[in-house]
Amino acid sequence: LKALEVEHKNLTAMHVVPDMHSRKAMMLGLADAVIAMPGGFGTLDELFEALTLVQTNKVTQFPVILVGTEFWGGLVQWIRGRLVDAGMIDPADADLISVVDTPAQVVAILQAARQARAGH
Q1: Which residues contact 106 (CB under 8 A, 6 or more apart)?
Q2: pTM of the predicted model as reported, rounded to 2 decimal places
Q3: When you count CB atoms within 10 A of the terminal residue's CB, does the N or C end of the chain come out lower?
Q4: What is the mean pLDDT of residues 75-88?
Protein backbone atom coordinates (compact mmCIF):
# COMPACT_ATOMS: atom_id res chain seq x y z
CA LEU A 1 0.00 0.00 0.00
CA LYS A 2 3.06 2.24 0.14
CA ALA A 3 2.48 3.41 -3.43
CA LEU A 4 -1.14 4.37 -2.68
CA GLU A 5 -0.60 6.39 0.48
CA VAL A 6 1.65 9.07 1.87
CA GLU A 7 4.77 7.56 3.38
CA HIS A 8 5.65 9.28 6.63
CA LYS A 9 9.41 9.83 6.83
CA ASN A 10 9.71 10.55 10.58
CA LEU A 11 8.42 7.28 12.03
CA THR A 12 10.51 5.08 14.28
CA ALA A 13 9.21 1.99 12.45
CA MET A 14 7.25 1.31 9.30
CA HIS A 15 5.69 -1.97 8.27
CA VAL A 16 5.06 -2.27 4.55
CA VAL A 17 2.40 -4.86 3.79
CA PRO A 18 1.09 -6.24 0.50
CA ASP A 19 -2.61 -5.62 1.03
CA MET A 20 -5.32 -4.16 3.24
CA HIS A 21 -6.14 -7.49 4.88
CA SER A 22 -2.54 -7.86 6.04
CA ARG A 23 -2.51 -4.26 7.21
CA LYS A 24 -5.65 -4.66 9.34
CA ALA A 25 -4.47 -7.96 10.80
CA MET A 26 -1.11 -6.45 11.77
CA MET A 27 -2.65 -3.29 13.22
CA LEU A 28 -5.14 -5.20 15.35
CA GLY A 29 -2.49 -7.66 16.48
CA LEU A 30 -0.32 -4.80 17.72
CA ALA A 31 -3.15 -2.66 19.11
CA ASP A 32 -4.16 -1.96 22.69
CA ALA A 33 -7.22 -0.07 21.43
CA VAL A 34 -8.93 1.18 18.31
CA ILE A 35 -9.41 4.93 18.28
CA ALA A 36 -11.29 6.24 15.26
CA MET A 37 -11.41 9.85 14.24
CA PRO A 38 -14.00 10.97 11.67
CA GLY A 39 -13.24 9.26 8.40
CA GLY A 40 -14.57 7.53 5.33
CA PHE A 41 -14.99 3.99 4.06
CA GLY A 42 -11.51 2.87 5.12
CA THR A 43 -12.15 4.03 8.66
CA LEU A 44 -15.52 2.28 8.72
CA ASP A 45 -13.98 -0.90 7.32
CA GLU A 46 -11.27 -0.96 9.99
CA LEU A 47 -13.77 -0.03 12.72
CA PHE A 48 -16.23 -2.79 11.89
CA GLU A 49 -13.47 -5.36 11.40
CA ALA A 50 -12.15 -4.53 14.88
CA LEU A 51 -15.64 -4.73 16.39
CA THR A 52 -16.29 -8.07 14.71
CA LEU A 53 -13.01 -9.55 15.91
CA VAL A 54 -13.63 -8.38 19.48
CA GLN A 55 -17.26 -9.55 19.36
CA THR A 56 -16.23 -13.03 18.22
CA ASN A 57 -13.27 -13.22 20.64
CA LYS A 58 -10.76 -13.48 17.78
CA VAL A 59 -8.73 -10.72 19.43
CA THR A 60 -8.43 -9.79 23.07
CA GLN A 61 -11.08 -7.33 24.08
CA PHE A 62 -9.81 -3.82 23.93
CA PRO A 63 -11.46 -0.42 23.81
CA VAL A 64 -13.04 0.74 20.58
CA ILE A 65 -13.28 4.51 20.87
CA LEU A 66 -14.92 6.89 18.43
CA VAL A 67 -13.81 10.51 18.77
CA GLY A 68 -16.50 13.02 17.87
CA THR A 69 -20.02 12.54 19.23
CA GLU A 70 -21.52 14.82 16.60
CA PHE A 71 -19.84 12.92 13.75
CA TRP A 72 -20.38 9.38 15.06
CA GLY A 73 -23.71 9.92 16.86
CA GLY A 74 -25.89 8.91 13.92
CA LEU A 75 -23.97 5.67 13.37
CA VAL A 76 -24.11 4.70 17.04
CA GLN A 77 -27.80 5.57 17.18
CA TRP A 78 -28.38 3.39 14.09
CA ILE A 79 -26.44 0.49 15.65
CA ARG A 80 -28.49 0.67 18.83
CA GLY A 81 -31.81 1.51 17.21
CA ARG A 82 -31.64 -0.77 14.20
CA LEU A 83 -29.21 -3.61 14.87
CA VAL A 84 -29.92 -4.14 18.56
CA ASP A 85 -33.67 -3.58 18.25
CA ALA A 86 -33.85 -6.00 15.31
CA GLY A 87 -31.93 -8.64 17.27
CA MET A 88 -29.03 -8.56 14.81
CA ILE A 89 -26.53 -7.89 17.61
CA ASP A 90 -26.66 -8.27 21.36
CA PRO A 91 -26.95 -5.04 23.38
CA ALA A 92 -23.59 -5.91 24.95
CA ASP A 93 -22.04 -5.78 21.48
CA ALA A 94 -23.23 -2.18 21.05
CA ASP A 95 -21.55 -1.43 24.37
CA LEU A 96 -18.18 -2.34 22.85
CA ILE A 97 -18.17 1.19 21.42
CA SER A 98 -17.33 4.30 23.44
CA VAL A 99 -17.96 7.71 21.91
CA VAL A 100 -16.08 10.71 23.29
CA ASP A 101 -15.11 14.24 22.37
CA THR A 102 -11.84 14.98 24.16
CA PRO A 103 -8.36 13.50 24.41
CA ALA A 104 -8.80 13.35 28.19
CA GLN A 105 -11.82 11.07 27.76
CA VAL A 106 -9.81 8.80 25.44
CA VAL A 107 -6.98 8.62 27.99
CA ALA A 108 -9.42 7.81 30.81
CA ILE A 109 -10.86 4.88 28.82
CA LEU A 110 -7.38 3.61 27.96
CA GLN A 111 -6.26 3.84 31.59
CA ALA A 112 -9.36 1.97 32.80
CA ALA A 113 -8.75 -0.77 30.21
CA ARG A 114 -5.11 -1.07 31.25
CA GLN A 115 -6.12 -1.39 34.92
CA ALA A 116 -8.75 -3.98 34.04
CA ARG A 117 -6.16 -6.04 32.12
CA ALA A 118 -3.79 -5.81 35.08
CA GLY A 119 -6.55 -7.08 37.39
CA HIS A 120 -7.02 -3.92 39.44
Answers
A1: 35, 65, 67, 100
A2: 0.80
A3: C
A4: 95
